[in-house]
Structures
1.
Amino acid sequence: MTPAVFEPATPLAPPAGRTTNDLIRQQNLASVLSLLHSRGALSRAQLGATTGLNRSTVTGLVMELTELGLVREAPGGERTGKVGRPTLDIEPEDHVAALSVRAEPHAVTVALVGLGGVVHARLRHDTASPPSPRRFVQIVESSVEAMRADIDRHYRVVGAGLAVPGLVNANGSVLVSPTLGWKRDPVAARLSDQLGMPVTAGNDASIGALAESRFGVGVGVGNLLYLGGAMHSIGGGLIIDGTLLRGTSGYAGELGHTVVDPRGRRCVCGRRGCLEAEVSLDILEPLLGRRKLDEDELDVELGVARNPRVMTEVTRQVEVLSIALTNFVNAFSPETVVLSGYLGALLSVSRERLADAVRVHPLGAEGRTIRLERAHLRSRLMLVGPAELAFADLLSNPAGFRG
Ligand SMILES: [Zn+2]
């Protein structure tokens, strides 16, 4: 299976001054580092077997990545020969790190994430109301300052990745984020100026799809439909034939604004009866008598809920979600469907109904089985995910990372 990639396709002809051999070496370095990043420690033999490269090529590539400070040797799990001498595995150098930033209506989260998806530190700043872009940048800057001494002492930070619940273009400008109240704001450029490092921004659901396909339930899955993301909005991310579906200007996958009931509740986008408005934690929280539940707290609440009004509302929302899922599965033909955030919690209490929704019977043919999974990374998803945006350049050209 092809791994999911954000990077553009490699040009057919080498740029001026570079030979085909240079390009092949760059691609091989990128393959080995990307593999170690997503899989963790591997032996040289495993690297060779997975990439199809011979032993001496792998040895040379590992040596170059070690000199670049991007990988290191670690005690391995395999033993060689009769003497049983332990081998050394190669693992990513997790002190090479990226800042991961997430903007939500009620919180700004900043994390420091190392190669291999290791979360070194995280800081969550709660806000009473959605922060303006200017205020958001201030909060991120003060969070980074709080980590500054640690960063300067221990880490090489390659840049920052930012997850936004809304439409984000390729330049990192937010076209619109209804839940944050942001419109036409160059937020990545603002943050980059303030932090003095490159910042890449993306839609939170697309980032979730990418992270699950690199580290979670979607490893090795070429066609994946990801639905969910935040606790209070629904985004979609689609991996089609191994590549994240971008669409015009990168806005594909706004599945939360699929209309499921034209006479339904008013949605933040202005329409009525969007999936996001009908399947919503905002409707359930008052019935539960709780506010601002996170995913772990919601699991506990739903696990013990006996209130008939809660149960009726959960059943109604699961029914609506089922209809939407059946439509999405018919439209995109995924191998695996991943539900995260609020929808992941609904899946845990209504697996049977939702599994039935993805059992497709096109034109009376035999039902095709599609895997339906809750996102594996859970609360780590949106810490690890945004950092992937910041690691993209390094992973596609490790030799460009000197100094
Ligand atoms: Zn809508």
2.
Amino acid sequence: MTPAFFFSLFLSMTAVCLRAAVIRDISDESLSFSVIIERVNANSSKVLIHGDIVPASTRNADPCTATGCKWPKIGSYVFVPVSIGSEYNDQERSIIINALLTFHNSTCIRFVWRTNQPDFIHFFSGPGCYSQLGRQSRGQVISLQRNGCLFQSTVQHEVLHALGFHHEQVRSDRDQYVTILSGNIIPGQEGNFVKVPTNNLQTPYDFTSVMHYGSFTFSKNGQPTIVAKSNPNLNFGNAFQMSASDVARVKRLYGCCE
Ligand SMILES: [Zn+2]
């Protein structure tokens, strides 16, 4: 069977669930995704870097997209095989699938059900919300813990990591736009704020990115850890969905037709 068949199958299985999942997502997400991820992962037994990224010995950042961690493009589309753990109920499964469909609607990424493809993403309910950066060989996981991580923004965030994207606040040019207040960071969490030599794909620094953490992420004292240089009172890190720049970056990295 062709990838196109799986794409069709994928859509047909999920269309009826779209409305219910979107309503649940918005109503439940009174907290920003970065707060959700930080809170859920605070109790995680998983070793994570940058808050929700599984460390890899061979790859650790967006620069990996220049050396092999992109997903392959076949014709006009980038096919990413996926599987979803049986531990999720129908509503939880719908949230994941509908979040994946937002990529179909805005980019050339096409998630297809995995059969025997060697590289794939498996969604499961692990200890927290986390992902790996870019495509890994022989499969990889995205953990979306039940009762904690199942929101459209969180799914999009972790999927963007798997597509090769890092957090907005660690991008290479961030020092022009934000100040990191190291004195307010929880001791031991400073590594979450280390800048990465990212490829920013000619997109502007974006406070509305679903990849941008909030001002108080990893704060030890209730004071901000990240402030905008243009406006110290700017409230950010509250995205409920991918921003226009998030979408533009996916399209540019993967050469989607504009
Ligand atoms: Zn993240």
3.
Amino acid sequence: MSAGVTVWFTGLSGAGKTTLCGLVKAGLIAAGARVEVLDGDDVRRHLAPDLGFSREDRMKNIERAAFVARLLSRNGVIVLASFITPYQSMRNYLRQELDPYIEVYVRCSLKECIRRDVKGLYRKALRGEVPRFTGISDEYEEPVNPDVTVDTEQCSKEEGARLILDFLRRRSFI
Ligand SMILES: Nc1ncnc2c1ncn2[C@@H]1O[C@H](COP(=O)(O)OP(=O)(O)OP(=O)(O)O)[C@@H](O)[C@H]1O
Ligand SMILES: [Mg+2]
């Protein structure tokens, strides 16, 4: 059985986490790997419908996702986890809990995320209609020690996905 790993994508809403996960997933499947995506939106719907966006609830959401990631990765699955994961304390927790753990910082300026506004949430948040929205009414702490940084304003999504796949190949996960 090939080694599993959790690849954790962190970044602002609209930075490109889900987009990159999809492309990396396709690349991994093409390479014959077993892969599963854990996306923040799905996990909140299915595993954390009781949770809100306070610091404590956000942490619980991450803990539940990490639990699932651990189950999968220890069975040889490459887990692609896409969560804003706004606080450094969360990422410290993940690095401690998950082994192996690869952190991908999906970097994009707040200005560009607001311009993209994929879900229309920035527009609402800027009108004060979304309490504790990351980047507007809640903080996003820049990752201090990501393994890979993908700047989605500087490179295309295909280039970003290739960067991550190359990293996984160098580390012998594929
Ligand atoms: N280089 C790039 N890499 C990734 N996405 C890009 C890039 N350039 C533009 N985009 C666009 O940016 C948007 C990113 O949206 P996406 O849903 O992936 O963000 P997200 O980080 O998953 O946000 P959320 O936290 O709200 O789920 C998409 O519309 C995507 O096409
Ligand atoms: Mg997403």
4.
Amino acid sequence: MSESLDSGPPPQAPTTALRQRLAELRGPAAQPHPLDARALAALAANPGCKRRALLDGAGVDKGALASALGSPATFGQSQFAFMRGNAFEARVKADGGRELLKLLGLERPAEVAVPELAAAGPEGRTARTSLALREATATGGWTLLDHPLLVLEVAGSAAYLEPDAVVVHPDGRWTVVEIKSFPMIDGSADAAKVGAAARQAAVYVLALERVAALTDGASVAHSVLLVCPKDFSNLPTASVVDVRKQLSVTRRQLTRLTRIEDIAAALPEDLSFDLETCSAEELTTAVESVPHAYAPECLAACELAFHCRDRAREAGAVETLGRPVRGELGGLTTVGDVLAAARGEAGDPDDPTVAALRRAAALRAESLEAAAHRGAEALAC
Ligand code: SF4
């Protein structure tokens, strides 16, 4: 069984009514934009954002929406980087998975089973993956699942997730493999990129635990194998990354997400994010009717970041200054409130935040005065 005992019940499919409502929000002719592990990791990093939860749950293409709103996202992979990444992944999985198993520390893996996982539709593919995991665990030996498909219920909606690979060990352990194209130089890689990969892998571990909980003799490793190009070559090298912390944060955050039904129920009946039929003005109104929780971290994780940042700045929201500053400012929610409190024009002087701001403003005024005085003396000499 899984190492985690709180992996929860298997995911529920969204109700027909919810599916229909989400399709209406997306636009009847629009194909749902799939939620991936990167999106889920970003969602888990900002669980207070109902806007992202709803748009992701409805399968709205946020990149296209951001462009339609006039604030296109600037991140994403170039075609060249995409092709390079695919070529590297093929190299890692060469020789029937033996290359990859060598990176797990096996010198001469004799037999590696690589089951066929193709099936019709996402439900068929997830069922095929679950069956392959169960068979591999029961059989023993080494098995490589190449691009298995997993499912996780998020805020009442099913998210399908496709790790690069999962290795089944002879003892029944399942290990997630993440293949990235950023380099590992002298055994270490960019900490921010490793952190993002670990958060993404934690989502896969979480989804795998649902299957492991129903599989005799299975356990999911809480360390994942991160494979990257070695130094500046395209030779693969690997590092084992402990994702226990990311796993517990992701698990906690995803359960805190407001259910999509509840977010949708609070919106006007005729609201639509249909990119085919709505004007930019209508889309702006629709987006603005769903509460958001902007933070500067959105800039690296969400396609709507420029739009939400502009709105937060227009409102003078202190969220634009970052979560730590926001936390320090307590009940002062706008930059205007903060400045008024610091100048003594507003705010309760017994409030420790207001008192600290006034002390800081007095110190600033004092040091500016001292600097002006020194400047005047220097000119007089
Ligand atoms: S950019 Fe906007 S929609 Fe996206 S997570 Fe941040 S606040 Fe939410």
